[in-house]
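thread from #wetlab-drylab

HS: before we spend reagent money on co-crystallization trials with phosphoric acid mono(formamide)ester, can we at least see a predicted complex? here's what I'd submit
DV: go for it
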Amino acid sequence: MAKRVYRPPHNVVAGRDMRNPFLGKDVISILDFSRSDLELLFRVADAMQKFRRSKIDLLSDKVVALAFFEPSTRTRLSFETAAKRLGANVIGFSAVEATSIAKGENLADTIRMLDSYADVIVIRHRFEGAAKFAAEIAENPVINAGDGKQHHPTQAMLDLYTVRSLFGRIDGLTYAVVGDLRYGRAATSFIYALTLFEPRKIFLVSPPLLKARPEVIEYLRKRGVPFEEVDSVDQVIEEIDVMYVTRIQKERFPDPMEYEKVKGAYRITLNLLKKGKDHLKVLHPLPKVDEVAHEVDESKYAAYFVQAANGVPVRMALLSLVLGADLEGKLGLKL
Ligand code: CP
């Protein structure tokens, strides 16, 4: 089914608003976007910061559907907060058992229904490709809030936004992406997102069983991004500016015995971080389990709670852009 045609007043080339490349667009992978698209998103997110505790009626005629077939705290609730701060109404569910899928309805029919009620569908599902499948069915835009081990594009958006806020830039920094690079969709999307910028170097740090998947390595090579795979964060601690830690995705292991082999394989402690640069920051998409020592939470290194909080302004910006809010008229923002 064709996507609904959005009709912005001008600057439209071949159905795409050149001032707003997000307008009416599905958000399936971070690689659907360019660097300049993300820079626009970050500018809008900056403008949303002052409404994160108040309200701006940019989307009061819109309904946002949150279709969460997998557990979530941050993504679902920050999307819901973002939508409500923008004046939109929110419908949805947070468990398969709460839907008619539990009675045997298929995913396609569920998406058709949500599409007929709402103006945008935010979907999380355990199957890779579920968001893309939904986007092929829905006329309205679909935003991927995580599909299996594959993509988590809005997480990558807020991750990059956080780096930009902390360092004033994304380019030229040395990154370590630490942990489960095999099953972790947030880690994978973060790595892909960095390829849109110019990192000095990316260290991929994981136990051998949890190395980044071949397609990710291939993509880094194709893009000519400087990277190196290493087994332990101790090997690179003195070189890095940003440490992006992820938990081991226990729920995605096909074989529980395989999980037992890597359980507790790495742990970030304050003593380790003290060996790094003074300005080193630790990001984590959360939830964290035991891979970061609690003592790190209160230290100058921890940026993960600020990062999670940034989910609201970044998702406010994304919903506004995708749904064509009047950002110029109401906020004086030049797109
Ligand atoms: N980062 C993230 O996706 O967290 P939730 O699973 O809580 O949404």
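DV: Residues 153-167 form the longest helix (15 residues).
HS: ok that's useful, forwarding to the group
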